[in-house]
Amino acid sequence: MLLRSLCLAAAMVGSASFAFGADYSRQVVPSPYSFSWAGAYAGLAAGYSWGNVTNDVVGVETNGGIAGAFIGYNFLSSANTFWGAEADLFAGNLNGSAAGVSASQPWSGALDARLGYFIGDTAFYLAAGLSFAESRIDGVSASNTGWNVAAGMEQHISGNLFLRGEYRHSDFGKQGSVSAFSNTLTGGVGMRF
């Protein structure tokens, strides 16, 4: 009788453990990250830029505020990395003068390839590509085309929205007698689609 009771108790404990384990294994643990860094996105950004516009005679330091928009697309290449392309266009109030010569850069833009790494809701990226700008010095205007390199960080904040900060160095090359370069620091807000 005692042996039968012990066997029955062991069978009940084993059944309960199996049932609990089966129920537990069916529970789905939701991912804490519902945001995806893949896909299309667009946003607005503003910041500060400083640089130089030069002709064959004099170089003039320029600086001022900029504001514009960006649009791009990312592809996930592994669990935590992405790559993509981005275009942006900024209008600015970059002005300066030296030795009686004035210079300005009313707009600039870029077309970049990006490579990034993300940890949950935070992403870090490097970018490089084509830069272009209108540069003016001493009454001469030029549409310059060159290259840029950039580094930035993006932070998911809510839903499909994210914040970003970026530093970029652009060398706009030389057209005719006019050459230019700039450094920019921008912050912005974007949305993924």
Question: Which secondary structure elements does this structure contain, and how are they paired or packed?
Answer:
Blueprint: H1 2-26, E1 39-54, E2 59-76, E3 81-98, E4 101-119, E5 122-137, E6 140-158, E7 161-175, E8 178-192
Antiparallel strand pairs: 1-2, 1-8, 2-3, 3-4, 4-5, 5-6, 6-7, 7-8
The end-to-end distance, rounded to whole angstroms, is 70 Å
CATH topology: Porin
Total number of distinct structural domains: 1
Mean pLDDT: 87
In the CATH hierarchy, what is the class? Mainly Beta
Percent range for β-strand residues: over 45%
CATH architecture: Beta Barrel
Taken from the alpha-carbon principal axes, the silhouette is elongated
Low-confidence stretches: 1-32
Q: Total strand count, please?
A: 8
Discrete helix count = 1
Over all CA atoms, what is the radius of gyration? 28 Å
Strand-pairing-aware structural class: mainly beta
Entry keywords:
single chain, Porin, 70% strand, 8-stranded antiparallel beta barrel, mainly beta, 193 residues
Note down, in words, how this protein is organized.
The chain has 193 residues and is mostly beta strands. The chain has a single domain (39-192), classed as Porin (Beta Barrel). The chain is 13% helix and 70% strand. The chain has one helix and eight strands. The protein has one helix at 2-26; strands at residues 39-54, 59-76, 81-98, 101-119, 122-137, 140-158, 161-175, 178-192. Strands 1-2-3-4-5-6-7-8 form an eight-stranded antiparallel beta barrel. Strand 3 and strand 4 (101-119) form a beta hairpin. It starts with a helix and ends with a strand.
